[in-house]
Amino acid sequence: MPRQTFVLNGKTVTLNVHDDVRVLWVLRDLLGVTGPKYGCGINVCKACTSHVNGRAFNPCSVRVGDLKKTDEVTTIEGLADTVAGDLHPMQQAWLDRDVAQCGYCQPGQIMAAVALVRKVRRERRSITDADLDGIRNICRCGTYTRIREAIEQGARRM
Amino acid sequence: MTEVTPRRWATMPRDLDTAPAGIARRSFLGYVVAGTTLVAAADLGLGAPDAAASAPGVPQPAELYDLNDMLTEAAMPTANLITVTVHEDGTASFALPRMEVGQGITTSTAMLIAEELELPVEKVRVTLADARPELLFNQLTGGSNTTISTYTPIRVAAAVAKSALLEAAAIQLGDAVETLRAKAGVISAPGGARLSYGELARAAARRTPRAVQVQLKDPSAFRVVGVGRPRVDARDAVTGRKKYATDMQVKGALPTMVCRAPTLNGTPKRLRNRKRILAMPGVRNVAVVDTGVAVRARTFGQCIDAIRAMKVDWEDGPVAGLSDADIVDELRAAELPLPALTDSLSDLLADNPLAQTVEVDTLFYFRSNSAMDTNSAIADVRPGRATIWAGLKSPITAQERIAQELGMSVDAVTVHVVQAGGSFGRRLFFDGALEAAKISQAMGKPVKLMWHRADDARVGRGHPMATSRVRAVHAGGQVLAFQQTHTSVETDFRHGLGEVITATAASLPTGLGNLGFSETVFELTQEVPYDFGVISQTLTETDDRFNTGSMRNIYSPDVRAAGELTVDELAAAMGQDPYEFRRANLRNARVVAVLDAVAKAGRWGRAMPHGTAQGIAIHKEYKGCSACLVEIDNRPRQTGRDIRDGVGGPRVTKVVFAIDVGLVVNPRGLEAQMQGGINDGIALALTSSMHLRDGHFLEASWDNYFYTRQWNTPPEVEVIVMPSESGQPGGAGEAGVAATFAAVACAYARATGATPAYFPVNHRDPLEFKPKPYVPPVPQSPTNGLKLTY
Ligand code: FES
Ligand code: FES
């Protein structure tokens, strides 16, 4: 079985698994990193949203063999370590707005929100209603109103 | 968003028909039970409501005695204890015999304990109790009943704990109990001496049980209850630490999935290529069970690969070959004629040229209550014993059914209740837990079963297709009759709620005892709170071949949407404004108050551009009432939006929602539940449904089943939590759905100039997606994710 190596939440991990196993299963089933959630497995629900090299990606739709040794994967578990302090400002905003209901979609929502803020920063603009409307992460508990409020707060502090 | 401040509460209209809590200063009996540390207990049966019903002048059963009274009373005969334990580290813990699925009951329970025990909320730990068969009916989470039925017993147990701590402190400090003060987990004496709860926990413990008489705090003295606070599990949720069933690590419980039939509820005859499947990478075990062919592998990805490679012969399911239109025909055939009008009304219609009839006939398609966290469970079945971990709202029934299925005694089966990622009524059932148990037994291995999203969407449960017909008669500006008949594919209540009903049916108010389960639930939840003369509502159910259940708010969203559309038609027929007409005809002051609140905050009647409209609706249920005002934009710039893998359609641009649930434990949590319910109501009206085609449902994932998304959600949402003098809390988990659905339906009708004949309004549009195949039953995961980063 091929050996796979990549960087996960700041640490290099190596394990044996077939190339075509999707990263989501490598994280959840083999490494026990369960922050990224399964919600569809076909890149439509966005519950598994994590970061690769600082950008949002959906590990259910990436073969582990396609990751390079130096690729840095960050899951919700590693998000706070990318900043000083206990929590990332987006996580804090989520607490302040008390966004989560069942909480299942929220790791993905937060990772998507952080990537969205970084993206609009790269484009030298701030978040618009159209950006918020364009977020594809589904929340079956319907927490959208507070998600929108939290993103605006989190963006101000990022 | 409306922050609830004391000032706002004070200026809101008062609760008019619920008397201030008569029970507030009654004393209650609790117990200090044996333990090495302080364990205080109360009988869960204390949750029964006061005998006095709250509504005056009563034409309908639901007003006198509703589903919640029944659920609460069903708990009465079982003398069963719930316990609050105070630990030496100064914390208190409590195992809640209910299920947390996002509705916030662990938080509100911690608040109740903190209030009576005088301990900071952060120091109260609430966990979910394992299945406790001795609780009988009292471990069912449903009907938005948790707070209603546990409000008193939990407070009694906490008050007993406080009194035991005070007594222990009095002995140690040499002061009289009355002179001591308990606050924030510390007891202080007049002289300044202090002892923490942690220091007293052992001293307050007893080796033999003792009964204790306690009085509860008067609600006017509440400092924690009624003040909004964040969820107790919020930090775990945002850091990824919160664990759901599939996140748990149980030794040997490898990923397991099931290959299912190409027709709904079809069954496997045989797996033709077992050898080849067993040879696939990662695959460990294969077993044919009654629901399909199960595979256990190193990863879920390898389960998916195996399912896609399986060659299975199937027996067709019971609806093979049928499509939506067939079921619509069946419902139409099952519809009973509307009840005959009384002779005097018929005469009036015949003689009085001004007497008129308004008729509304609405069809509601199948809808799914698939949650984000799919049906899943861990099962470890060994010879002679079994252990199950799953998100279960009726764990006792699950335990009994699983034991029966496995051929074991009930006490050989341990059922652990795990937090779940949403329920919406689905986790009243235990489809995943039962299936996992069978698979584990067949394979002789522990399994972590997860339903693929495609299974959860297609084979999971949902809201049955239904029709609702309303006929109203009016003359001279008065409504003389309002008759509604609801006809539905059967709603499955075989999860324990049924047992509750069986057990209590005989003691129900006159005339209800002989009704079936569905009729009983219908009778106990539905009411028309208007002064509409002769009112009747009836239910007919037919066809038990579908996987259905009590989807969030059961019958109310559909019944109320049809009802409120009729109210709008009546207003129009009489040339009256929809808001003023409702106001003039409502029988209940609390409902008028919520209606006024949304009309004012939402500026009812403001000028709106052509193609946009306001809608307004009310709902009364679960000892509370609600009103919703929405604005909808049906202009081409909204309806013409092109959304990849989704639908745009008309946009609800604004929602103002007012809720009166009686006593509010956590206003922030209540507001969150309303916000969620609002998105459900919008989905039911505009976008979410299942298409039955050739014996199966087409929708297999979130790019087919269009629950409300960010591009559909209203940019402006205001929730008004009404103040209440009531000493009784009401239900919250479902209360946001019905009024929203009805208001959106009314707004859409006004924007388009026609009352819709069916919901959701996009159901008969050309499909917005390419249906995924039935064989293989699950789609393969894409591989292009690295090209789609942002
Ligand atoms: S599981 Fe990855 S997008 Fe749904
Ligand atoms: S919080 Fe439950 S799915 Fe989003």
Write the layout of secondary structure elements.
The complex is a heterodimer of chains A (158) and B (790).
Chain A: E1 3-8, E2 11-16, H1 23-30, E3 50-52, E4 55-57, E5 72-74, H2 76-79, H3 89-96, H4 106-122, H5 129-133, H6 144-157
Parallel strand pairs in A: 1-5
Antiparallel strand pairs in A: 1-2, 3-4, 3-5
Chain B: H1 6-11, E1 27-33, E2 38-43, H2 61-64, H3 67-74, E3 81-86, E4 92-96, H4 105-117, E5 124-128, H5 146-173, E6 181-183, E7 186-188, E8 194-196, H6 197-200, E9 210-215, H7 234-239, E10 254-259, E11 267-271, H8 274-278, E12 283-289, E13 292-297, H9 300-309, E14 312-315, H10 324-334, H11 343-351, E15 356-364, E16 367-368, E17 376-382, E18 385-390, H12 395-406, E19 413-417, H13 431-443, E20 447-450, H14 453-458, E21 462-463, E22 466-475, E23 478-489, H15 497-505, H16 517-525, E24 534-542, H17 556-573, H18 578-585, H19 589-601, E25 612-621, E26 624-633, H20 636-639, E27 651-660, H21 667-686, E28 692-693, E29 696-697, E30 716-721, H22 737-752, E31 758-759
Parallel strand pairs in B: 4-5, 10-20, 15-31, 18-19, 23-24, 27-30
Antiparallel strand pairs in B: 1-2, 1-9, 2-3, 3-4, 6-7, 7-8, 10-13, 11-14, 12-13, 15-22, 16-21, 17-18, 17-20, 22-23, 25-26, 26-27, 28-29
The complex binds FE2/S2 (inorganic) cluster (2 copies).
One FE2/S2 (inorganic) cluster (FES) sits between chains A (100-106, 139-141, 143) and B (102, 372, 421-422).
